[in-house]
Structure formats: structure tokens, C-alpha cells
Amino acid sequence: MKPVFPNSATVTVNGRLVLRKAPPGRVVLKVRYGVLVHPVHGPVLIDTGYGPQVTAAPGRSLTLRLYSTVLRPMLVEDQAPQAVLARMGFTPADVRLVILTHLHADHVARLDEFPQARILTRRAVLAATLGRSRFANLHRGIFPELLPPGLMDRCTDIDSLPRVAAPLGLPDGSDLFGDGSVLAMDLPGHAEGHFGLCFPHLAPPLLYACDVQWRVQALEPGRAPGYPARAVAEDRAAWEVTTAQVAAFARAGGQVVLCHQPEDTPFDLPAVAR
To answer: Fewer CB within 10 Å of terminal CB in the chain, N or C?
Structure first.
């Protein structure tokens, strides 16, 4: 079972903001989400990527409009979830599970398009988020207006699932489907409760390390970005440890995909021919 990672949007930034010792100039980051087709559960989303809920929806809060104005995400419409699902022969109603690696806007924006799906995430983090003030959530880069009502009732807690061994020196992970095919891996530092996904049955194993870094080169010693990028980490010490852990997995022969790396990967969904 091989996941694919469509690109929901691009965001253009100064390259030195996301990679120490980067050459001068700007870099176009991708904003991936994932789709896998499980033999029992059918199509499963890994986050949802950006959507018009962030960039254009009427009624957005002032802070969300400001966020969109500053980052200027450019949506890739033919790689939006509904378009991708249609290419695969599915509709949004066929999606029964959405895995949320964390709650930042570029990972939850299109949740409202899947109102019947179960949500696989950290229940304690979701509950804490929904119980916080708007200011406290903004401090963490979270916009509760993007979280549809009733999420707690649809939530399956990944921390309640069995823990099983992961490959290539990774710690144990939560077995999401009970068949060992996809493991939720603790990757603390970037955001509260942040986790990635390991696919141990692939050869070599794949770690979708989500937002551990913006670029794979930042996994190399001395290449992780400094301030201001470092300042947005939820836990900077944990972020450094996690970066080293993912780098060790890659050195051991594992495949690593990051949400925002600008380079194409073997798991990216090809663009529609024009």
C-alpha cells in the first residue's frame, strides 16, 4: 500500500528562512497532503492541505485573512482533494478516515469537505485546542474556525491504539489500522502533538516526516534553519532531537518525505497533463 502526496498549494519564501547556508534567492515550497487506499478502509486522507477556506472564503476572521495575505498560498486546483479523489474513482463521501498529523491551517483547511469521516489524531491535543482561547490558539498557529463542529465526536485517539515496533531505529509507533501497514510516529517539536507516518511494509520503509523540517537538506548537520524559523517551533529542544532522529532513519536507508520540500519525490502525485 503506497501513499501518494498531491500538492495542494505553493508558498514562496526566502530560501535562507528554511535552510541554513542556502544560496540567496527565493524557493517555492509545496504544501502536500496524502492519499492512500486501504484494502479495508478505502481512501484515507493524510491531512487536507490548503484550500479556499484559508485564501478566499467569506467570513474569514481578520487574523486568518492576514495569515493568507502574508503567506500568499497559491492553490493547485487540479490537486485539491476532490479533484484527486475523482481521478482515483472516488468521491469525498467515500472518505471514511482522515489522519490529522497536527492542527495548523495548511493541514486542516479542507476538513469541512469531509463531514462524515472519522478523524485519527491525538484526542488530548484536539480537546485542548477546542478549549483554549482564540489568542492562545493563534499563538500556536492554529485557527479554530477551520475546525468543523463535532470533531471530538468523530475523533479516534491514536494514543489509544496498540504500539508496535518500527524499522531502522525508529521508536515504536501507533498501529493505525491494526495490520502494521501504517504507524503514527511521535515527531515532537514543530507543533503540539505533531506526528508523522511510517510505512514499514514498503521497501525501503517510508517515513512521512510531515513538518519536521521544510527541506530535506535541513536534516544534515548544521543546515537546520535558525531564527525566525526556529522561533515558530512549539518545542525547540524537541525539534532538534526529532530532526536528528529523522536524519538517522534516512542514513539507515529509509525514505523520507516532508510536507513542504520543493523537490519532487517518488510519492508525489503527477500533475494533470494539459
So the answer is: C
